[in-house]
């Protein structure tokens, strides 16, 4: 867990929450439970605030990740989330039968774009994997991730992270979350081994 809201560039702008190799091992929060989804949901609640159980999800991912996003995003749509995506991501998701509303990228317009939706609090979760090349793609992803940090909206930046988030959201929706003494959980996990 890193306090991204406290970080600023010398110009006073927010920073990107995309973790580099030196930052991926930094953490202060852990979620423990009998199932991975519950444990992940607990870790996110402790680090950034709870994962959403309803609302609108913004999906804008690198070309290399588009097909890998189909299953987790379809699952989110099946759970009742509204999916909004940038043009390229939306086209791939639609091809696989997912209902998607397309929103422009930040650099394409100044009103009604992805960053504006985040800033207005109209998005419950952001899924944005970084682009490999192209100045506008890199700056657009940076703007989206920075807006999510500023608005306290969970932002997932990897394919495995999205899969984990879906499992956590499913656990929250099912009501599988519970609090119990660590000793009790130890006995449950030990009995299952």
Overall description:
With 193 residues, this protein is of the alpha/beta class. The protein has one domain (20-192): Methylglyoxal synthase-like domain (Rossmann fold, 3-Layer(aba) Sandwich). Helix content is 43%, strand content 9%. It has 7 helices and 5 strands, in the order αβαβαβαβαβαα. The protein has helices spanning 36-47, 66-78, 87-95, 114-119, 135-150, 159-174, 182-192; strands spanning 56-60, 82-85, 101-102, 125-128, 155-156. A 5-stranded parallel β-sheet has the order 3-2-1-4-5, with helices on both faces. α3 links the parallel β2 (82-85) and β3 (101-102). α1 packs across α6 (159-174). The longest helix is centred in the last third of the chain and has 16 residues, at 135-150. The chain is globular, with a radius of gyration of 17 Å. The protein starts with 35 loop residues before the first helix and ends with a helix. The mean pLDDT is 82. Residues 49-192 form the MGS-like domain.
